[in-house]
Design brief:
By secondary structure, this protein is α/β, with parallel strands linked by helices. Helix content is about 30%, strand content about 25%. It has a single domain (about 5-115, about 180-325), classed as P-loop containing nucleotide triphosphate hydrolases (Rossmann fold, 3-Layer(aba) Sandwich), CATH 3.40.50.300. The protein is built from eleven helices and twelve strands. A hairpin with a 4-residue loop joins strand 1 and strand 2. Bound molecules: iron/sulfur cluster (SF4).
Length: about 350
């Protein structure tokens, strides 16, 4: 019997348009449509990968969910006491209380840790600020967090410069765990790390997910990073999600040409696949002046007239596999072996 899964987070038609101001009077002359109407949900205990090239809006989306930015429009629903509440409508006091349940792991472990604070101060700060622990209890909690992320108690009194990149990221993870959050936005958490350390960090995040009952929104710029940690993957292009499916389905049976191109860049030992790499022509267009119709059409090798004229509908091509492409039923796209 299939168990009923519970949504922890649901994002509906989220938009973040940053005004472009010019002149002495700071007149608004346009908008950067960083996030241009995205919708998705994440089940409790699930990992959703959010993938796209630099500038596609994925980090901005993560920041909007955490209300680091005030979005232009949309809803961010989060489960609180069994009910979904819209974070964008919560009064500041209620939002402050709920912030404990949502944390972030940053991309750069070098700049995200205050170099003047010891590891003890860095990890204990959220516990102190929220009045959760002090004295010996505080020390014990920090010690437990350090051990949970594979560091030792004697690391407590050292400063960030004394650690490698991978160890610094572990300190950042311990800090994110301190308040026992439900949701963690992992914002490219391994992009700045050596390849050899990336797998260790992802394995750690997977273990912590089980141990702490965490739900992840895992942001990355390529599909190889999210392959093993994600239950489902959403692919973003120029402010919109263009495809969303279970990981195995998306990797083996992509339905959007942009996803196919990203998959063709995933490293593989298969020599045939290497030669099939799809090189996208041109740069990502500016989100201040996106192309009409399908925003991907200037770079799409399958584009037809309709692609530059009409915005493709977001439709479910097979159960739980969503895509926005006019030609999805006609195209025979290539995936890669999953797992
Ligand atoms: Fe390519 Fe057209 Fe599909 Fe856009 S709608 S991805 S341009 S085929």
């Amino acid at each position: 019997m299939e168990t009923q899964r519970t949504k922890l987070l649901e994002v509906k038609d989220l938009k973040m348009h940053f005004p472009i101001q010019q002149g002495f009077l700071r007149k608004v002359v346009g908008y950067v449509r960083a996030v241009d109407g995205i919708s998705f949900f994440i089940y409790e205990g699930e990992t959703l990968g959010l993938v796209g090239e630099s500038g596609c809006g994925k980090t901005t989306a993560g920041r909007c969910i955490l209300r680091a930015y005030v979005p232009t429009a949309g809803e961010v629903l989060f489960r609180k006491n069994g009910e979904m509440v819209d974070l964008l409508k919560l009064p500041p006091k209620e939002m402050k209380a709920l912030r404990r349940e949502m944390q972030i792991i940053f991309q750069d472990p070098f700049s995200s840790l205050n170099p003047r604070m010891t590891v003890m101060d860095i990890i204990s700060e959220p516990l102190v600020v929220n009045g959760i622990a002090k004295g010996d209890d505080l020390k014990l909690q920090v010690r437990n967090l350090l051990e949970a992320v594979g560091l030792r108690a004697q690391h407590m009194n050292r400063y960030p410069y004394a650690f490698s990149g991978g160890q610094r990221q572990r300190i950042g993870i311990a800090r994110a765990l301190a308040l026992r959050p439900k949701l963690i936005v992992c914002d490219e958490p391994v992009s700045a790390l050596d390849v050899s350390i990336q797998a260790q960090t992802i394995n750690l995040l997977e273990d912590l997910q089980k141990d702490f009952g965490l739900t992840y929104l895992f942001i990355a710029h390529d599909l190889s990073v999210v392959e093993h940690i994600s239950d489902r993957v959403a692919v973003m292009y120029l402010g919109n999600i263009v495809e969303l499916a279970a990981s195995n389905e998306l990797y083996e049976n992509p339905r959007h040409p942009y996803t196919e191109a990203l998959l063709s860049a995933v490293p593989t030992t298969d020599p045939d696949q290497k030669s099939n790499r799809i090189v996208l022509e041109g740069d990502v267009p500016s989100p201040a002046d996106p192309p009409p119709g399908c925003k991907f059409h200037p770079r799409c090798r399958f584009a037809k007239d309709i692609c530059s004229q009409e915005v493709p509908a977001w439709s479910e091509t097979s159960p739980d596999h969503w895509v926005a492409c006019h030609l999805t039923d006609e195209l025979k796209l290539s995936g890669i072996a999953y797992g």
